[in-house]
Each structure stands twice: as C-alpha cells, then as structure tokens.
Amino acid sequence: MGQLQAGIIPVTAFQQNCTILFDSDDKHGVLIDPGGDNDQVLHAIRSNGITIDAIWITHGHIDHAAGAMDMKETLGVDIVGPHEADKFLLDSMEEKAAQYGIQGSGVRNCTPDRWLKDGDTVSFGSHVFEVLHCPGHAPGHVVFYNAIAKFAHVGDVLFNGSVGRTDLPGGDHETLISSIKNKLFPLGDDIGFICGHGPGGRFGEERRTNPFLT
C-alpha cells in the first residue's frame, strides 16, 4: 500500500475544494465533491495518471455535487454518499441553479448509488475511511475519516478559523457545533483535515483558536 495523497482543484465561482484522494503507488483513488468545472477536474485526473474508482459526496449543496452525475457517466463509477437526509437538496440542484442564474453550466440533480450513515466505511484499495454523520451545515452531511493517515475530509462542517454556515435549508447552528465537538474533536488534536473551501488545518489548532468553538 502506498501513501494516501490528495490533490485539490478549486471549482466554480464558489471556489469549492473538489478533491482527489489517491494511493501514491497504484494511483487509484476517489473524487470527492465534484461541484462543477468538470473539464478542469478531468484534466487533473488524466494528466496525473489517476484512476478514479468512485465519487464520494459530503453533502447535497450545489457547489459540492452539481457535477457529480456528469462525472459518474464520464468515469463510469458509482456515486457514494451523502446521508439520505440530503436527498431533498440533491433533488433540487437544477432549481437552485436557476435561482442563482447559473443555468446551462452542467448542473444536474444527483441520485447517489449508495447512501451513507454514521459508522459505515468506504474505501479504495486498502485505504479505509469511517463515515461520520455530522449534520448542522446540511442535515445529511458526512465526514470521511482515515485513522491510519490521521486525516479527515470534513466538507463544510469545519474550516480553518471558521465553521460551516447554518442559514441554508436544513441548517442548525447548535447541531453543527455539536457535530464538531462530539464527532470530530474526539478523534484527536493531530488529525489533519481538508475542508470544502480554503486551506485545511488540524483539529487541535481549531479546538484551541477557532473563535466559533473556543
């Protein structure tokens, strides 16, 4: 087994961190949260010789899942996640695109091949991730956690110096803070994370300094 590696491609006007997780040896991996700009993402995949085995979705917001169905068809892989509580979001992305004035940008409603729940595991090769259901930003938001690598992809639950917004449909601030404090922080201060926007960090630093959590 090679090391777990990550490549980040910020996509769309939302600058969402579409992420490629892959094994350094065999170059197999997964694509997390393809929110758009699929040509750019495909170029990164192909120019680095990576084989995508599945698409993983953290939650159902348009900037994280709008490109998933096209990517599924292009790559010939399954869409895995999020939790089924986000079905109403995935079913209404085309409607949201019209509201935001971004029609014709390849946005499609998304139908996952597999829903996830807390305690499930997902994997590629020998890299195994635990699924943590972390609602608050979105009711069906999930986090992917790899204990061996001491790494988590947290989507829009937690940011470097901030937390996910909770003013969107299904959001709840108290639930979000509970997800962070009771699901993420107990994993350990040394856990590194990639988030949905901007730079990542470590849980310990966020626990000590994040103004929304101290």
From TrEMBL:
Alphabetical keyword list: Hydrolase, Metal-binding, Zinc
Any one GO MF annotation of this record: metal ion binding
Protein name as it appears in the record: Glyoxylase-like metal-dependent hydrolase (Beta-lactamase superfamily II)
Protein origin, superkingdom: Bacteria
Keyword Zinc: yes
InterPro entries the record matches: MBL_Glyoxalase_II, Metallo-B-lactamas, RibonucZ/Hydroxyglut_hydro
Keyword Zinc recorded: yes
Domain Metallo-beta-lactamase: 15-197
CDD domains found in the cross-reference section: YcbL-like_MBL-fold
Cofactor(s) annotated in UniProt: Zn(2+)
